[in-house]
Each structure stands twice: as structure tokens, then as C-alpha cells.
Amino acid sequence: MQNISRNFFSYLSKNKLLNKSAKRWGLQLGASKVVAGLNVENAIETIKDLNDSGRMVTLDHLGEFVNEEQEARDAMEAGLHTLDVLHEHGVHSTLSVKLTKLGLDIDENLCRQHISALAHQASIYGNEINIDMEDYARYEQTLSILHSLREQYDNVGTVLQSYLHRGVDDVHALAGIPLRIVKGAYKESPAVAYQKKDDVDRHFLQMVEAHMLNESYTAIATHDHELIDEVKAFAARNHIPREMFEFQMLYGFRNDLQQSLVNEGYRFRTYVPFGRDWYGYFMRRLAERPQNVTFALRGMFSK
């Protein structure tokens, strides 16, 4: 049943017609509980509240299905504006970006120009860019662009997904680069990805531990308290300084656990999405955990 649910919502996340329609709905279907507004100005107050509670933020301007050059340029301009606003308000927030939003599926060189402009602007402000990893079809391109950026900018990192078989190998190849380790939210072939939760969880810990032992900054992105406890114990046993890693969770989920980690003295960052293109992101959150469907229904009928 869980696999059926995951496949169903993964399918819906890729439906361009529904994505287009969702822009007219506003933040319906409970999305307002996990998406911090339709523009960066809406999201700023959320960021300030999280900062006041001791939590750092990474801000994601949502967007998918970018098929025209002008859309990609608009996304880049919106990213520059977002960096400006973050700087003007003095909040503690980095910027997460998807390369497809910047034109990866249109023209890779165009995408490289756009992500370079964002990295440059962020470097001026002393801020950081995190490149979100997307589906496996874009994996190699993403890593190639990351390596090129790192030749000029040291304020850029990326995400690796533990459901991919190659995860530990890539962790070692990216030693010294800040990494956000996640389980993964896309439907991938058994040829490249683990299909069982236990395998994904085991590999998640292996990847986190490998990056920590590489003395590289590690973001542990999970809502699973058992995995979090395992990481805490590993860090203590191996004398990993707390300033070398942080825990991350999504905005709107496990707020009590987020705050408890802050209270224990761990670095913590909340992943905060915003924007009109919220539909695909929200569907993938429903795909990840069947419990999130109930969460969404509560959001619909509590308005």
C-alpha cells in the first residue's frame, strides 16, 4: 500500500496540467502549512521567527517544468532578488536552487551562466548556495556543474540521496564539499536505487558517517529520530565537533523535534520553500510518507 501511495503521488507531482492549475488555487490542499508564502517577502517573517528560535534556514524558491529560456532567466533574476532580500533583512538563511528551474533541460550552458550568477552574488554577501539534487536523469549533469562552480566559488554545495547505490562513492569523491544527505524523493529504477526502506536508511548512515570522517561539513536531513540518535552517538564516539555538522528538517514537519535539537545545542537548519510553483514539491512530500496525506486533509478543512 505504501508503494502504491508513493507511486501515485510521484506520478501526480510530474503532471504539468495539474501543476499549472495549482498556480490558480493558491496554497490550498494544506500546502500553506509546509510552504512559507507565494513570494520571498511573505517568507521573510517565517525566517525571522525560525532564526529567533535558534534555527538557521535554507530558502527554496520553488519551480518546475521550466521549458523556455525566458522562464529560466526569470528564475535566475528571482534568485538574485531573493539573495538581495535575505541580505537586506540580515537573516541567517542560505539559498537552495534546482538546476532545472535555471534552464538545465533547455540549454546546459545557459543553466551554468545562471547558477554562476547566483553563486557570485551569494559570495558578495557572504552567503551560500546549495544545489538541490533532482532525479537520476540529471545526476551527472548536476555533479559536473558543481565541480565547475567549485573551481571559482567555495560557497556552493549540493545534495546526495541515500537511495542511490553510488552514494558512498560520491561522498568520497566530494570530500571537502558541504553536502546535504537525504534519503531521496523521486521514483527511481532498482538498477540505480534501493527500493527497501531498511536499505535506504542503512546507506544514509553510511554516507553521513563517511562524510563526517572525511572532515567535511555535513547536513543530516531527516525527520527520523532513530537515525538522528545514531548520528549523535557516532559524532560523540568519533569526537566530531558540532560545528562540523547540522541537522535539517522541512518547514512544517516535526517542529517539536526541530526545537529539541536546538535546545540540546546542535546546529539546526529548516528547509523553507516558497513560491507559486508549490504543487510538485507538495506532491513529493505526500509521496514520501502516507501520514502526510492526513496532514494535507487536515489543512484543507481547517481553513
From TrEMBL:
Its cofactor is FAD. This is proline dehydrogenase. Pfam families: Pro_dh (PF01619). InterPro entries: FAD-linked_oxidoreductase-like, PRODH_bac_arc, Proline_DH_dom, Proline_oxidase. GO terms for biological process: L-proline catabolic process to L-glutamate. Pathway: Amino-acid degradation; L-proline degradation into L-glutamate; L-glutamate from L-proline: step 1/2. It catalyses: L-proline + a quinone = (S)-1-pyrroline-5-carboxylate + a quinol + H(+). It is an enzyme of class 1 (oxidoreductase). It comes from Salicibibacter halophilus.
